[in-house]
Amino acid sequence: MERHTITPRPGWQRIVEEQGCIYELTRYPDDSLRPYWDESAYYSFTLPEIEALERTVEELHRMCLAAADHIVAEDRFADLGLTDRRVTALVSESWRRRAEQPSIYGRFDLHYDGTGPAKMLEYNADTPTSLVEAASPQWFWMEERFPDADQWNSLHERLVDAWREQAELLPPGAPVHFAHSVEDETGEDLMTVAYLQETARQAGLETEAIPVEEIGWDGLSGRFVDQRLRFIRSCFKLYPWEWLVTDEFGPRALDTLDNGGGTGTTLWIEPAWKMLLSNKALLAILWELFPDHPNLLPAYVDGPRELAATTGYAAKPLFGREGAGITLHEPGPEAVLRSEPACYQALLPLPTFAGNRVVLGAWVVRDAAAGLGIRESAGLVTDGYARFLPHIVR
Predict the structure, then answer these.
(1) Quick check: 194 and 209 in contact, CB under 8 A?
(2) DSSP assignment letter at 52
(3) How far apart are CA 265 and CA 171, in angstroms?
(4) Is 53 within 8 Å of 46 (Cβ atoms)?
(5) DSSP-assigned beta bridge partners for residue 2
(6) How far is CA 45 from CA 41, 102, 115, 147, in A?
(7) DSSP for 291-316?
(8) Once rounded to an integer, what is the mean pLDDT over residues 52-58?
(9) E strands, 159-266, in order
(10) Strands 352-353 vs 356-365: parallel, antiparallel or unpaired
(11) Residue 365: pLDDT band by 50, 70, 90 thresholds?
(12) Which residues of 288-324 are buried (b: 16+ CB within 10 A; e: fewer)?
């Protein structure tokens, strides 16, 4: 794994916008705009490195599914901060009937510097973003700049195949609605949903876009409807489950939840069982089930335990996203417990390349490793100010 500097292409901003990355600039607190898509540098890997990472990602995914099964079987929902028995019952049923529900994708965030085993930092299994730039602009960048190279990137083909293979699980005779939130001012959510809608369309599905704020409720039929008052029978949502179940219309979402087999009126994608994998407490469950696994970091939900005096720890809110709410604690004599439920994971500083802190985002489509996106940050935590850099396989 190496970092290389390179001169950006003339007109790069227009190029990546045309390829779907309209959020190629980030607005900073001082109101300045700086590149999010950053092609002033790129990373290169050897083929054996990529093959090893692929095996790691698929093993981690299998371990996460085993952890989800353990959570349901042993009723460990309290460790996830899920105490509403109706919600946990529906999640359990969703897990038991997972073969009847479409599930598309997820993204592992990994610590990796090319010198040792990759370490799992978290699993974004419900509403992961940075998909568009990983699937499309970086592939076309490679074809233009390094036509003889390769890239860990089968995202587009696998996404189309995932929709095609699971089409029979969708309610017949109705479009799949694709919902995003208009509250996102960057356009990232909009383009992520639009891209996934396009992959479904290429798989031969009928689709319809809708802002999540415009999903309506028909009190007479007891169903969700779109702007044209058509029943929403299946819906991909880039909207976290933990938000959905606590929103004003959360009880109605639970009332109409189809866990597969036509038992409800709305089939949501990703399914409700993804709440088991998108929760940071998963990290602690994994460490409990697979102690000392080379691709895991020690993690606990009841406090940092020995981490406080040894490695230090990162305290992560169970439902956090984009690095929000994470606090880092160096080794010391006393542990600092969060007031809200949190996961305490061993502190492992991010790898640094040319002064930039790096996280690998490794994609899973259904159960297969599907591609790589790389983000760099100046701070200790990868947050909304991170930059996306392309990569090649030498």
Answers:
(1) yes
(2) H
(3) 9
(4) no
(5) 44
(6) 14, 33, 12, 16
(7) TT-TT---EESS--GGGGTTT-EEEE
(8) 98
(9) 176-180, 207-211, 216-218, 223-225, 234-237
(10) antiparallel
(11) very high
(12) eebeebebbbbbbbeebeebbeebbbbbbbbbbbebe
Look at strands 25-27 and 33-35 and give their pairing: antiparallel
CA 365 to mean position of chain CA atoms: 11
Of 246, 252, 240, 189, give the one whose Cα is nearest residue 215: 252
pLDDT digits (tens, 9 = 90+) for 289-319: 999 999 999 999 999 999 999 999 999 999 8
Contact (CB, 8 A) for 72 and 276:
yes
Average confidence (pLDDT) over 338-350: 93
pLDDT band at residue 323 using 50, 70 and 90 as cut-offs: low
Q: What is the DSSP letter of 250?
A: H
Question: SS3 for 273?
Answer: helix
pLDDT in tens, 250-298: 889 999 998 887 778 999 999 999 999 999 999 999 999 999 999 999 9
Whose structure tokens read 């042993």?
Answer: 74
Q: Which two tokens stand for residue 380?
A: 């200790």
Per-residue pLDDT tens over the stretch 57-74: 999 999 999 999 999 999
- 93-104 mean pLDDT: 95
The one-letter code for the residue type at 118 is: A
Closest CA to 132 of 192, 186, 42, 185: 192
Which residues have C-beta within 8 Å of that of residue 209, sequence separation ≥ 6? 177, 178, 179, 180, 193, 194, 197
pTM of the model: 0.94
Bridge partners, residue 257, by sequence: 266
- Supply the mean pLDDT for the chain: 94
| Helix pair angle (47-73, 85-96), 10° resolution | 120
Q: Around Cβ 162, how many Cβ atoms within 10 Å?
A: 23
